[in-house]
Design a protein that fits this description.
The complex is a heterodimer of chains A (about 300) and B (about 450). Chain A has about 300 residues and is an all-alpha fold. Chain A has one domain: Orthogonal Bundle (MetI-like fold), CATH 1.10.3720. Chain A is about 70% helix and about 0% strand. Chain A is globular. The model of chain A has no long low-confidence stretch (mean pLDDT about 90). Chain B is α/β, with parallel strands linked by helices and about 450 residues long. Chain B folds into two domains: about 25-175 and about 335-380, 3-Layer(aba) Sandwich (D-Maltodextrin-Binding Protein, domain 2); about 180-335 and about 395-444, Periplasmic binding protein-like II (D-Maltodextrin-Binding Protein, domain 2). In chain B, helix 3 crosses helix 14, helix 10 packs across helix 17 (about 410-425) and helix 11 crosses helix 18 (about 430-444). The chains are: A mainly alpha (about 300), B alpha/beta (about 450). Chains A and B meet through helix 1 and helix 13 of A and helix 1, helix 4, helix 5 and helix 17 of B.
Chain lengths: ~300, ~450
């Protein structure tokens, strides 16, 4: 095919310029800003004061930032195990010839279509409410008074209540990815295994799972990025004042960059350091997954 | 050749589309130009000296003011502002382009000010105007003096703005006050004849309400800092709280411990609703459902609870009681507001100021108060919304003001720790001594 270099340049230039201005420039500016003491995000560079690694050291010395990182770690690990297991289970069930597959697929995916804000309000007001929440009413109806008395939104349980609600909203998305991965596997492999006497569990363990390695990597990467960017659910569960039990690194970053109600001190330099730290975490996780789950195996 | 032409057209289209996409949309925008032309001629006739009243100056007209608003276009505050703008346009011959940014303005206005964006006026939380944006805003002292602004403002508000910014950098409007809001019928039924002024009287009122079968108090998670803030500030004053948050010493502070013990006592006496502290706004709604009597909050709460529960309550309000040996009298409360400001690069400073006066004083301030159930910013407007009429005496009696959370916001990181431990204190899972020890450890 004949290539017209001028045309290639003409078509690429706008996208390239946009990419450089909208993406590369902010990234470079953020990285540089993270080494400076800067109050406002858009302050002129003449107001920046070089601080070396102070911002990075400062955030790790701050207990509330460490708490936010621990919260994020628990969301990633516990939430990840729950969401990816449940979504894989649902995907396997839906591809096993169950009736009304389309309906269930749509129903399970539905929470992803609804705004996270609306979902969070639903969970807080109608599920976890101490007075008339679904869980309280359900356990009371069963005569399980001790369970009915659980305060799902008190200081000890709030994080777990938030995690349950978040996982509920996330399952459908990962299930769809697993579903498409399973549907790519040729049916004759399962038929041959059935003829050879393999049961459903055996087929799942020795055919489905190994051939979903690439899909797993995709889902794990998406899950990691989602948990690093955990923001709306935290804000909804602590709407006016940020609480340590629900704080995430991104919420902490937002608070110190823009201030909160009644708090007007800002520190965009530290905010940038948190942003760079989170980006490094994503890169490290991506690198580890690439090493552990290699793409060189057979997959469909 | 034909291919080249098509390619060039496609390429141009792509570039134009991208540029258009990058253009400013700025949220909902309304450009009010109606009547401007006819008004311009009449306004031009009157270019006499600036009025010393709060009426906008009769300018030569023809200017276009850009206003970035903290409201969404359908909010009642926006409706009042739109009416004020319409009248301003008719009178001045200027036009006003409004960009309804909503609350997102708090994350974008700083960037806009730093970038020198064309904005002639904006509004935001008055503390942020005074502390965050003041350096990029116009000094309004001279214009305020010429417009006799002091006569039309509640003294505490410009005083606070001057305290933060060094001079008047904003014009406050839609103020709120704070204290304890209650259901008058329940007080009457419980036999409480006088609003409590001291902590002892307050405890007595709580006991009477409990005996009458009501939960005396409600508490939502979002306001535990606010409640404890009032309590500790009554003991130490806001400066004392700020000092504790800045320099530590919680374990040695008798006032901090006494305040925590008083909260613990309320919890142990069963004076809080059985569901307290609940997720905001569940517990405050208990007042609307007529299960509970009192709430520590600000003057928006009667309207908020009424909207949430459709209740029909006769609201009363009193200033937060004094404590034995405490530093502050009952006449100190958290007061706040929204504020208009004019960026220092605006070329239409006087015109913007006139519009601000139009909105924040006189008839439109009265309309704002009545339509949004808020306190008039202009004290010459004496009509208060019925729902918060009970605040009037308490508000007028104020001698000093607290910031939001009464100094507990001083260290944002420590604040989060205090919030978490307060939740445990209000839940009865922590004693006052344990609470103080936890905060003391975090403050070191």
């Amino acid at each position: 095919m004949k290539r017209n270099k001028k045309m290639i340049i003409a078509f690429i230039t706008p996208a390239l310029v946009t990419f450089l201005v909208m993406f590369v420039y902010p990234v470079i500016r953020t990285v540089i800003m993270s080494f400076f003491k800067v109050e406002s995000l858009t302050a002129s560079t003449s107001e920046w004061q070089f601080a070396g690694l102070d911002n990075y050291i400062g955030i790790w010395k701050t207990p509330i930032f460490r708490t936010s990182m621990i919260n994020m770690g628990v969301i990633w690990l516990v939430g990840g195990v729950i969401v990816l297991s449940v979504s894989l289970l649902l995907a396997v069930i839906l591809t096993s010839g169950v009736r009304f597959k389309s309906f269930f697929r749509a129903a399970i995916y539905l929470p992803n279509v609804i705004s996270a804000v609306a979902l969070a309000i639903m969970w807080i007001q109608y599920v976890f409410s101490k007075k008339y929440g679904m869980l309280t009413s359900f356990f009371r109806a069963l005569g399980l008074d001790n369970l009915a008395k659980i305060s799902w939104l008190d200081s000890d349980m709030k994080f777990w209540a938030m995690l349950i609600a978040f996982c509920f909203g996330a399952v459908g998305y990962y299930m769809l990815i697993f579903l498409s991965g399973i549907e790519q596997i040729p049916q004759d492999l399962f038929e041959a295994a059935t003829i050879d006497g393999a049961n459903k569990m055996g087929q799942f363990a020795h055919i489905t799972l190994p051939l979903l390695k690439g899909v797993f990597k995709t889902n794990l990467t998406f899950w990691s990025i989602n948990t690093m960017m955990f923001f709306v659910w935290s804000k909804m569960f602590s709407p006016v004042e940020t609480e340590a039990s629900t704080i995430s690194p991104v919420v902490y970053m937002y608070n110190i960059v823009f201030g909160t109600k009644g708090v007007t001190q800002r520190d965009a330099g530290r905010g940038a350091a948190i942003g760079v730290t989170m980006a490094l975490f994503v890169l490290i996780i991506f690198f580890i997954f690439n090493r552990v789950l290699k793409d060189d195996d057979l997959e469909y | 050749m034909k291919k080249k032409v098509i390619s060039a057209v496609l390429c141009t289209t792509m570039a134009v589309a991208m540029l258009a996409g990058c253009g400013s949309n700025g949220g909902a925008k309304s450009n009010s130009t109606s009547k401007a032309t006819s008004a311009a001629s009449s306004a031009a006739e009157s270019t006499s000296a600036k009025s010393k009243s709060t009426e906008p100056a009769k300018a030569e007209g023809g200017k276009n003011l850009v206003y970035w608003s903290m409201w969404n276009e359908t909010e009642p505050q926006a409706e009042v502002i739109k009416d004020a703008i319409e009248e301003y346009q008719t009178e001045s011959g200027n036009t006003v382009t409004v960009e309804w940014k909503g609350r997102d303005i708090s994350t974008i206005i700083q960037a806009a000010l730093d970038a020198g964006e064309t904005i002639d006026l904006f509004d935001e939380d008055y503390q942020r105007v005074g502390q965050q944006y003041a350096s990029k805003c116009m000094d309004l002292e001279d214009m305020a003096k010429a417009a006799d602004y002091e006569t039309h403002s509640v003294e505490a508000l410009p005083t606070a703005l001057r305290g933060w910014a060094g001079s008047l950098k904003g014009i406050a409007y839609q103020p709120y006050t704070s204290g304890i809001f209650y259901n008058k019928a329940m007080f009457k039924e419980a036999g409480i004849e006088k609003e409590p002024a001291t902590w002892t009287e307050f405890l007595d009122a709580c006991k009477k309400l409990k005996d009458a079968g009501y939960a005396p108090l409600v508490q939502d998670d979002a306001y535990v800092l606010y409640s404890y803030g009032f309590q500790i500030a009554r003991h130490l004053g806001q400066d004392g709280v700020v000092d504790l948050c800045k320099n530590g010493g919680w374990a040695e502070s008798e006032g901090a411990l006494a305040a925590a013990k008083e909260i613990q006592s309320l919890v142990e006496s069963g004076y809080y609703s059985e569901y307290a502290p609940d997720a905001y706004p569940n517990n405050e709604n208990e007042i609307g459902y007529e299960n509970a009597a009192m709430i520590v909050n600000a003057s928006w709460v009667p309207s908020e609870i009424t909207n949430n529960t459709k209740c029909d309550i006769e609201w009363g309000m009193f200033n937060y009681p004094t404590v034995d040996g405490g530093k502050d009298p009952a006449t100190v409360a958290n007061v706040g507001a929204q504020a208009f400001a004019i960026p220092d690069n605006s070329k239409n400073g006087q015109a913007a100021f006139d519009l601000i006066m139009k909105i924040t004083t006189g008839a439109f301030d009265q309309k704002m108060a009545l339509d949004t159930q808020s306190i008039p910013a202009d004290p010459t407007n004496e009509e208060w919304p019925e729902m918060i009429a009970g605040c009037k005496d308490a508000f007028n009696a104020l001698t000093n003001v607290y910031d939001w959370n009464m100094g507990l916001n001083t260290d944002a990181d420590l604040k989060t720790v205090i919030q978490d431990n307060l939740m445990k204190l209000f839940e009865g899972k922590m004693t006052a001594e344990e609470f103080i020890a936890a905060v003391d450890a975090a403050s070191k």
